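Quick one: co-fold with PMH.
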Amino acid sequence: MNNQGFFYRDTWAEVDLDCITENLNVFKEHLPQGVDIFAVVKANAYGHGDLHVAKTALNAGATYLAVAFMDEAIALRNKGISAPILVLGASRPEDAKVAVQFNLTLTIFQKEWLEEARKHLSTGEKLSLHIKVDTGMGRLGVRTCEELSEVEQLIIEDDRFYFEGIFTHYATADELNNQYFKEQYTRFEEMIHHLKTRPKYIHTSNSAAAIRFPKAYFNAVRIGISMYGLTPSIEMKNEIPFPLREAFSMQVKLVNVKRHKSGDKVSYGATYGSVEDEWIGTLPIGYADGWLRKLQGQEVLVDGQRVPIVGRICMDQCMIRLPYYVPIGTQVTLIGRQGDEFISINEIAAKLDTINYEVPCVITKRVPRVYKQGGKVTDIKNDLLS
Ligand code: PMH
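Sure, here it is.
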């Protein structure tokens, strides 16, 4: 399969689905039997592509998918995914019926929500629910045992609700200091102790907790960032007991190469001037693709060598300084490997003063995703043309 006909600008993100499979396989070996994996595929699978990642994760043994809101879950259903999907964020009670129609599991944490949702459900319909407990993240969740009991009671007394799960989310599982994690874990244990019934799923761990804290497994873990081959935090870099492989890389091809004379300027603001005669290449990617202006000065790979982005990054293009003449059409790697050189998502995140999660998430829909399996391109998704 080649790119022709799928996109008309040589800028693409490559997603190696074998990495997703391998990352989940090493995770499965790390987890004891009986602990289910919920694959977190919200935000278009952290920018990697929800459908392809969902299918790959399910094939690799994940039993549940998790997204942030109903639209993301419905999008997966519309693309043919029938596996269970948990909506982690808040949904409207008025949409309870739609959730049933699409067989979605919703997160709830307010008794008023249940009272309202009841009005929108008919007899015979069954809405699967997970209760969210706020043990210290301060985002969503019941905060007291009384609230939890009220919510549980409303669920179990109504046939239209199915109490399938309960969960919480840790704020600091990726930090080496475990104090706050321990407080949240203890609070969760206390809270679930008050339940009248035991739901099928009890889950608290994101990637960081699932790597570091076996006692927090309960019977399912929610794996996001590490499935994509990224470390949950820089602090945790040396704490990961198995190899992870980055699935996401970014590629472009040179669209222009020209000789600049000493003093010739590059890009808006004319902030870069050649100090000697040099070769300048133009790349067809810019901040509207998520290749943000702050990446000025970042290195990219050409011919297996690191070369810098010079001048300001424009909306659709940016320029690099080449070590010698390189022909138009040469592939340039912005994230990923060329020979012995590797530009990691962590390197880009450091340049952007942010976390690795954000990097693939902000690569916009203008950038087609090219999927690889077994070293071959198996599918190409260009949202602009589909
Ligand atoms: N569970 C919940 C409720 C989440 O919000 C997330 C990630 C995960 C699991 C997966 O975490 P992991 O990717 O660290 O494995 N949520 C977010 C977030 O809201 N901002 O950054 C990551």
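If it helps, The domain at 248-385 is CATH 2.40.37.10 (Lyase, Ornithine Decarboxylase; Chain A, domain 1).
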